[in-house]
Please model this.
Amino acid sequence: MAVLQSGNLSFDFQFAEFDDGYIRYKFSFLWRDEPVMNDAILKRGNDYWDKRPVGGFLADEFREEIFVPFLRRILEEDKADYWESLDPDVTVAIYPDEYFPFLKSHWVLLHESEEQKQEREAQLQRKKERGKLPDDSYTIIVFVDAYNFKGEGVYQGDGFSLQMMVNRTTLEAFADALAREYEEFKKQFKVDEWNAEND
Model:
């Protein structure tokens, strides 16, 4: 399981199974290794929903995994974009070098020490010269549709979102871990063979 960590908050993402062409993901939000969501209000009760991790969620993709390529594209292009699972159970949006709520700040700078100013200007110069930097920041917002909750029979467009902020190094490590796990997953479940037989 690959983990994207920001302080005490983590987004745990796992390739769970491959069933008749569908790649199933499991993911959870944890605070100090404890699920953030109340498991008692999440759907259970059939073969699909019973595979949900405690306080976690499921999502599917068909035939080809596209979450890792999405992460790679964000890291390469540094342009805001989003990934959505096959059914709109979950959406992951990533905003490079932007901070929620993505509008002009209401804050007014009252004081900046000479040292802070030099540090900020040096950072801007490094970015200008080198482009991508290890400490480039990314705001990640994960939206989960209310369909995941008990009593909801269809996708709602409502739900909840969780926000994290990470740097380039952390996001690259997460993408690399997921890519390695997917290679093992493909071997275990013979994904390429299934796809070749069902073209």
Notes: Residues 168-189 form the longest helix (22 residues). The chain has four helices and nine strands. The CA atoms of residues 125 and 131 lie 10 Å apart. Helices lie at 67-77, 114-130, 168-189, 191-197.
